[in-house]
Amino acid sequence: MRTGAVSWDVDARHSLFHGRRKGRPLRQGQQALIENRLPDLLMPPPPETVGTVDLSGVFDPPVRAVWLEIGFGGGEHLAWQAEHNPDVGIIGCEPFVNGVASLLRHIAHGGLRNVRIHPDDARPLIEALPSGGLERVFLLHPDPWPKRRHHGRRLVQRGWLDRMWEVLVPGGLLRLATDDVGYLRWMLARLTAHPGFRWTGTQLTDLTDRRADWPETRYETKARRQGRSPAYLEFRRH
Ligand SMILES: C[S@@+](CC[C@H](N)C(=O)[O-])C[C@H]1O[C@@H](n2cnc3c(N)ncnc32)[C@H](O)[C@@H]1O
Prior knowledge:
alpha/beta, Rossmann fold, 7-stranded mixed beta sheet, disordered N terminus
């Protein structure tokens, strides 16, 4: 299935991420969460060269399935899913340290035990996941990189979808959201052309209406306030 797999040598890891890693300085409480809580919740780092992350011992107590959220932002959606699906382990990837601190606060408030964090670019981790290791993947409001010369930075690419096909179990779900019309067209074109994914919807409102088990993210709230309407995409891996 794979056509455009990226080779994850160490240099590539550091050059591929183009977003922000830091925002305003962390407050004392946030810094304390990063120092005291994060170490216990870290995902094992992806192998530097070719290799596979063993998911079997990552969650304690063991979970029935593993989900992944890429670019969780402030972590509201991830924390909601973890709270409502205690039998599932959720791995969150986010290189923006202020977002990681925000998720740690949600985890502490909710007493959540089923979350692990990869505080970095998701792609090296995804490359190292075992085939069929995930039941769901969430990519909500990824950076749209609207300029044509930056389209190569978009996470959704044919090679990325091929990799999603590999790491998802048969019947697994890929959920995406965007409020950027250009990126929506881009996503739909690649997803509908992919032989390994099928849209779960049947009518237009399945694209425009958020499902009950799909809480609003911080970015989405802001987009709505500014008059932009998000689209919700759910595709099943078959
Ligand atoms: C527009 S924000 C959306 C955040 C969140 N999903 C929401 O809806 O509120 C995009 C997020 O993706 C993260 N991101 C960008 N590239 C990433 C990558 N390669 N791996 C993991 N996260 C990434 C950014 O740091 C940022 O927090």
